[in-house]
Amino acid sequence: MKRVYTLITSIVVLSILISGCIPSGNSEAENLNIVQTSVAETITAMQATSLAAATPTQVIPTETPTTAATNTPENTPIPTQAPTATVTPRPAFLISNVQDVSYPDNTAVTAGKEFTKTWRFTNAGTSTWTSDFKIVFVSGNQMSAATTAIGQTVAPGQTADISLVLTAPTATDTYTGYFMLQSPNGARFGFGDDGNSAFWVKVKVETFFEVTGAKVNIKPKTYTGSCPYTFTVSATITVSAPGTVTYKYVATNKESDLKTLVFSEAGSKTTDEGTWTVTSSGDLEIHIYIDKPNNQAFTVVTVPVTCN
């Protein structure tokens, strides 16, 4: 509606302007004709312009070229190969599974007493231990241990008990001695990854009251003659510390009453002499039995007896 109103107004204004521009001298009819023609032409032009403005411009969409998808290769991780474990070859000579069969660490022993330490070993190497392999001292306190052959054959994987005789020091303290095995060609070895660790014995030397030795003294050493016959007997007893020993004589078919012997210090003493009577032929076997403190029988003495 607004567009129509604008068009009419434009026609009126245009007519006025055209009529002002007509040259004089024309007849009224000619002037009217000129005005009408101009207005008509103007209206036609304006209609065309208006139609062009009213007609929407069709925008033809431009197709954006589609880029073909390309297959971009993924970064596929290269599998990592696990490192190969390095296998260390077993040495020819090696000990494993070391165990204490006797005298474990800190066992109390009597000062000056001989004792036998036994270990249990497994041959973890690749070579056999022969009977001439030895236990050798390497450091610490030797405790009078001598180089000692193992005296047996131990193949790889086998286990064996191997012993060593030692003597406890005389002073009270804790002592440790370190030892290794040695092959006939002098190669020393022990336990551990490289076979260089020594095995050991560790004892606590203490002063205990105990009988460390006892023997029967009998006279004569043999007898031939009439029976019954009476022998003279005594005993020599050795102790580790001051104390009182209770003992008796024991023979094949009888034993004596309990007797006592008092010690004021460590050492040996011989008892008073007593008697022992036999009534028939045969060997007289007699020994000392320590009732206290050891509860231990000592070496038997044999005396041949022939009765006439």
From TrEMBL:
Biased composition annotated in UniProt, kind: Low complexity: 63-79
| CDD domains reported for this sequence | NBR1_like (cd14947)
Every copy of the Nbr1 FW domain together lies at 103-205
A Pfam family per the record = N_BRCA1_IG
Where is the segment annotated Disordered?
Answer: 63-85
Q: Which PANTHER family match?
A: OVARIAN CARCINOMA ANTIGEN CA125-RELATED (PTHR20930), PROTEIN ILRUN (PTHR20930:SF0)
Q: What is this protein called?
A: Nbr1 FW domain-containing protein
Which species is listed as the source? Answer: bioreactor metagenome
User: What lineage is this protein's organism placed in?
Assistant: unclassified sequences, metagenomes, ecological metagenomes
